[in-house]
Design a protein that fits this description.
By secondary structure, the protein is mainly alpha-helical. The chain has helices at 16-23, 26-34, 48-54, 58-66, 81-96.
Length: 98
C-alpha cells in the first residue's frame, strides 16, 4: 500500500481523504488518517474539513478536528468550515418555511 496517500488522486479529482469525507465514510476516513493522510492537504484552498462540513458529515468533521484539522482555514470564498455550517443551517431552516 502506498504510504504517500495524499498524493494519490481519485477519479473525482479530489484527495482520497476529501472523497471519504464527501461520502461520509467514517471507516475510510479513520483508515486514511491512521495511514498518515494530511488533514491540512487542500485542493485549491478547500480542505477535507470544509468538505465534511459542506456535506453535513458530522462524524468525519469531528474526526478531522481530533486529528488537528484547522477550524480557521479559509477556502476560496474566504469561508471557514464553521461558516459553511452556519450558511447550510440557514438554508435548511429557510427550506422548512417554504
Amino acid at each position: 500500500m502506498c504510504r504517500d496517500i495524499t498524493k494519490i488522486w481519485s477519479k473525482c479529482t479530489r484527495i482520497p481523504l476529501m472523497c471519504s469525507c464527501f461520502s461520509g465514510s467514517i471507516d475510510c476516513t479513520k483508515l486514511l488518517l491512521k495511514m498518515g493522510a494530511d488533514v491540512h492537504a487542500p485542493q485549491g484552498q478547500t480542505t477535507s474539513l470544509h468538505i465534511a462540513c459542506q456535506e453535513d458529515k458530522v462524524e468525519c468533521a469531528e474526526l478531522l478536528i481530533k486529528y488537528g484539522a484547522n477550524i480557521n482555514a479559509l477556502n476560496q470564498n474566504r469561508a471557514t468550515p464553521f461558516c459553511i455550517i452556519a450558511f447550510s443551517m440557514e438554508v435548511h431552516s429557510a427550506q422548512n418555511y417554504f
